[in-house]
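Thread amino acids onto this structure.
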């Protein structure tokens, strides 16, 4: 299984009471990082990715949690991020807690064994309604009782709320997961577009993005911020740069710093994982 690990020499497995653990889990991977809350510094990241474009089943996920020396420790706080394509944004003035399942099934099918959960977003003033597998929630509560997961769209919207304020006109963010991507567009700090698209290749992604640009009359000279499973000079970013003039990679920001061991890491790949600390 492909594996990434970076850690600072100050990392102490016996001091986790002073650390904040943030975990991100999707069917194709599990990543977690540790923040030293005394120094507000990230000092560890580990990431496991399923091989050969396969997925982790619940047994494998349980095994990863059970056997990892840091995931089984007790922490000052634990955050959990669940990326998924299926979600619905409901404006806060229209939201009724008793209708969350109805909101979700208006756009998506609620699969057997899934439940509907909700996150509140400040900007825009809205609720994110999304589905989660019951076995996943059971695993989480087995290791971290009472934990309530964040949908990754909440973290992307929170991130863009601070970054876009210095931008006049459009602020465009594309976040990429293995099987889907999110396109978020603000115009003068007003959310104009937020959606997910399944894709098979880069051509699919370009088709969706450029089609949305056309409908919203967005010029290809605009700047796009990328995060997720893409790297500088890879096929995806290189192909996009042929059609969109300005490509930048979104960097996590907040009241924290990174150990020097992260200096050569493309932090945009783990934007949501590092940004979840801002939700506290």
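Threaded sequence (280 positions):
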């Amino acid at each position: 299984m492909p594996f990434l690990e970076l850690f600072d020499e100050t990392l102490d497995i016996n001091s986790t009471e002073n650390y904040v653990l943030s975990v991100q889990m999707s069917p194709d991977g599990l990543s977690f990082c540790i923040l030293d809350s005394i120094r507000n510094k990230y000092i560890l990241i580990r990431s496991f990715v399923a091989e050969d474009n396969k997925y982790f089943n619940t047994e494998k996920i349980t095994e990863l949690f059970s056997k990892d020396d840091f995931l089984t420790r007790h922490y000052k706080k634990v955050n959990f991020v669940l990326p998924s394509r299926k979600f619905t944004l409901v404006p806060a003035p229209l939201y009724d807690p008793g209708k969350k399942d109805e909101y979700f099934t208006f756009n998506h099918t609620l699969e057997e064994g899934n439940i509907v959960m909700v996150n509140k977003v400040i900007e825009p003033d809205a609720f994110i309604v999304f589905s989660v597998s019951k076995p996943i929630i059971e695993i989480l509560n087995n290791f971290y009782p009472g934990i309530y997961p964040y949908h990754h769209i909440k973290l992307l919207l929170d991130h863009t709320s601070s970054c876009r304020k210095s931008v006049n006109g459009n602020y465009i963010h594309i976040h990429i997961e293995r099987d889907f991507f999110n396109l978020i567009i603000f115009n003068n700090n007003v959310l104009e577009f937020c959606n997910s698209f399944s894709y098979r290749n880069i051509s699919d992604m370009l088709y969706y993005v450029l089609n949305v640009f056309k409908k919203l009359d967005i010029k290809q000279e605009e700047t796009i911020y990328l995060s997720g499973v893409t790297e500088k000079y890879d096929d995806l970013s290189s192909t996009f740069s042929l059609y969109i003039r300005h490509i930048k990679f979104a960097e996590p920001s907040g009241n924290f710093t990174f150990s020097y061991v992260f200096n050569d890491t493309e932090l945009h790949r783990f934007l949501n994982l590092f940004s979840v600390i801002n939700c506290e």
